[in-house]
Specification:
By secondary structure, the protein is mainly alpha-helical. The protein has helices at about 1-30, 35-60, 65-90, 95-115, 120-125, 130-155, 165-170, 175-205, 210-225, 225-235, 240-265, 275-295, 300-320; strands spanning about 90-95, 130, 270, 300. One of its GO terms (biological process) is intracellular calcium ion homeostasis.
Amino acid sequence: MDILFLVGGLLLILLGANGLTDGAASVAKRFRIPSIVIGLTIVAFGTSAPELTVSISSALKGSADIAIGNVVGSNIFNTLMIVGCTALFAPIAITRNTLKREIPLCILSSFALLICANDIFLDGSRENILSITDGLLLLCFFAIFLSYTFAIAKRDGEMKETSQSEEEEIRQLPMWKSALYILGGLAGLIVGGNFFVEGASGIARSLGVSESVIGLTLVAGGTSLPELATSIVAALKKNPEIAIGNVIGSNLFNIFFVLGCSASITPLHLTGITNFDLWVLVGSSLLLWLFGVFFGKRTITRMEGSILILCYVAYTAVLIYSL
């Protein structure tokens, strides 16, 4: 029964995210909002909606380890597994701006979470908690990130250089259908999120596995399916560089917005998420930056992709061995 809840909830989440994204993008296009803005906001929200739904549902139900493990595990999965798998299909070119701006921001977000989640070490507290203050701080970082992204896009002229083919990729639906997609998508996200958390918690209890391990592996992999699908399709269409933007945008969104919202609603107690997990998160971003700067001349090669995948396999093996 728990497996049915898990699979059914995930399907509802993915369908809901897709419907919500299509409906919102159609409304945005109707009001002549540039595609770059739609991509930076609505589409980014759509691919991270599963993580947002699962984390908020988990936080409200008192399953903080699933809420935090979902974000930490998703970001590790994104950086190591998704980039690694995409590089196996086609080497990923990284622009100079991405190496100078976006990837360092990703590293910064990981360090910010590491600092916020170390109350015992830094403050001498009895336990590590992502407090409401921490959540609001992460949301402030998210607002700065959005403002920075729009400013860069406007300065570089990207707002005016959207091609006709990009515009045509967004379907303009009738208003009633857009509203139906948005409402149906939200309903799917909410119901699916509840089912998914119930299923994941039930599986953890029945197997005697901690919710943190389930959140870091099963839940993280499941909620990262939109990013994985987007990146693999981009590689098959000979646009592997999209994978980097997809992964970095999702990672920043997950930490700053998803965890920011979750912690702002209710404090998140870290019981099963350790500094080992958080340092792997930081290390994965640093490894991606190092590969881009030093080894492949701003390209993630197939060999480097294989190393990223092996790192994820090793991390998962450590989690399983430590049970």
